[in-house]
Design a protein that fits this description.
Helices cover 69% and strands 0% of the residues. It is an all-alpha fold and 122 residues long. It has one domain. Helix 1 packs across helix 3. The chain is rod-shaped. The termini are far apart. The C terminus is likely disordered.
């Protein structure tokens, strides 16, 4: 007949050790999860800061492109940037539209005659 934990001190000791090991493992999991959550939160903060920096730089670029178009006109600005008129126009429209999404502009399908030496869009 098997002995019950109440009558077998060695079995009772093994049960206590097993429970202590489970408790330690659960505590380690809880601690690791807390570290993971904190690291993920730090990453999210850093990415948000970097996204803001990228958006700011994109706005600066859009403003500079708009300034070039205002000073030189669309044709010369597109040529100087190595872009087609349509691509430059789309770029300017995207920079002015909500969420930075391009607005359809099908009115101009012409392109710059020579390809860009910098490998830009034609």
């Amino acid at each position: 007949m098997p002995r019950s934990p109440r009558t077998d001190p060695a079995m009772l000791d093994r049960l206590r050790q097993a429970r202590a090991a489970e408790d330690a493992a659960l505590a380690a999991i809880s601690s690791a999860q807390a570290h993971l959550d904190a690291a993920a939160a730090r990453r999210a903060t850093v990415l948000a800061d970097l996204d803001a920096a990228v958006e700011s730089a994109a706005a600066e670029l859009a403003q500079a492109r708009g300034g070039l178009v205002a000073a030189a006109g669309l044709d010369r600005a597109a040529l100087a940037l190595g872009m087609s008129r349509a691509a430059l126009r789309r770029s300017l429209a995207r920079d002015r539209s909500p969420l930075g999404r391009a607005t359809p502009d099908r009115s101009d399908t012409s392109s710059v005659a020579a390809p860009s030496p910098a490998g830009g869009e034609r």
